[in-house]
Amino acid sequence: MNIVASPIAQSRLPPPVALAPSARTPRRCALAVGVIGPGRVGSALLEQLRAAQPRLERSMNLVLNLCGVVASRQMWLDCDDPELNARHHRAQTWRPNDLGEFAAHVRGDDGRHALLIDCSASDEVAAHYPDWLAAGIHVITPNKLAGSGPLERWHAIRAASVDSGARFRCEATVCAGLPVVQTLRDLLDTGDELIDIEGMFSGTMAWLCNRYDGSRPFSALLREAQALGYTEPDPRADLSGIDVARKLVILAREAGLPLSLEDVDVESLVPPALAGLPLGECTRRLHELDAPMSAKLAKAQVHSGVLRHVGRLDREGRASVRLAALPAAHAFAHARLADNVVQFRTRRYRDNPLMVQGPGAGPEVTAAGVFADLLRIAESLAVRP
Ligand SMILES: NC(=O)c1ccc[n+]([C@@H]2O[C@H](COP(=O)([O-])OP(=O)(O)OC[C@H]3O[C@@H](n4cnc5c(N)ncnc54)[C@H](OP(=O)(O)O)[C@@H]3O)[C@@H](O)[C@H]2O)c1
């Protein structure tokens, strides 16, 4: 990960003030934590939390109490008796999934600080956020469906958070562990003004564009990316541009722009003839991508340019996702194979934009983005009991 020019680092701080000894020991803070979705990201997070616990207790006086884990059909609560949680052939017996019961258990009735971490990709789970926040439960998620879902629900999430003081954080929804949402927040909270955000928000598309020089058909590269596990199970999810559009909507809303998914001008790279096909049939006909992609590449190469998959949002709320022909000297032409790159142009960073760059997918880095959100909430609780 590489952050070029952080706004915090560039700010002029007053000379350091000596801290009173008592201020050196952070106030003890205990957080009751419930994890929803122990899949790739959720499992990596559980492992990171377990490994970090002794260090967090030592350095931050922070204790994380894992109170439950819930998957799509079943859940484990720490209150369950050993008999229910007995191991059968190395598998635990869990109770059936019940999100209401799960949230109530993590929240408790003793005024504790409670936090739910949604590592699912479920809209059903996202629909609970307003109620959980209203009940004073903090919510963190890498799930894009709340931040880019119905605007009404987004407003309900914000309103519940403001009313109850519970925090909602979603750093990992945009470029996984890269600090993109927080960088935008820091810029705006310190009084900067957004001009635009432009970036390569899809690692899969970045990899494909980087490798596509015309020496091999686009479909052959796409099959290679599939074999390497870089694409979604259905590669049309990457080629359609919708996932990037969701990230733009999340950033727009963070910037106070009431954008919805329908407002984003998305250039899908899926030919209409492939759009409605069952996955198997589509996979057999991937070669139909080759002619249109070859024409786009030829057009870019006329001016010695390169193709890059670019998402753009400006301060008026105009947002687009497209395959752009960029000059070979453009910063996006030199990113590493599957890197995400996000470029912020603001009043302060007008001529030389602030850039965040690095791997924008993968369970470990995504879980680390979620973990960083958790630490931000814990820090705020340590000063506000
Ligand atoms: N993987 C990445 O690199 C990456 C990067 C950025 C963001 N994200 C986001 O992170 C989230 C998790 O991704 P992932 O790759 O870890 O997905 P995953 O491996 O498919 O795991 C999803 C988990 O969610 C659980 N789940 C589904 N519906 C649920 C429900 N109604 N209630 C409770 N749990 C439910 C699933 O339970 P079962 O095990 O029972 O099916 C599974 O444990 C997604 O929103 C994804 O978009 C992922």
Blueprint (SSEs and pairs):
Blueprint: E1 2-4, H1 7-10, E2 29-36, H2 40-60, E3 62-70, E4 74-77, E5 87-88, E6 91-92, E7 95-96, H3 99-107, E8 113-118, H4 123-126, H5 129-134, E9 138-140, H6 144-147, H7 151-164, E10 168-169, H8 181-189, E11 194-200, H9 203-211, H10 218-227, H11 236-239, H12 242-254, E12 264-266, H13 272-275, H14 279-284, H15 290-302, E13 305-314, E14 319-327, E15 339-346, E16 354-359, H16 363-383
Parallel strand pairs: 2-3, 2-8, 8-9, 9-10, 12-14
Antiparallel strand pairs: 1-16, 3-4, 4-7, 5-6, 11-13, 11-15, 13-14, 15-16
This protein binds NADP nicotinamide-adenine-dinucleotide phosphate (NAP).
Which keywords apply here?
16 strands, 2 domains, alpha/beta, 16 helices, 7-stranded mixed β-sheet, binds NADP nicotinamide-adenine-dinucleotide phosphate, disordered N terminus, globular, Dihydrodipicolinate Reductase, domain 2, Rossmann fold, single chain, 385 residues, 39% helix
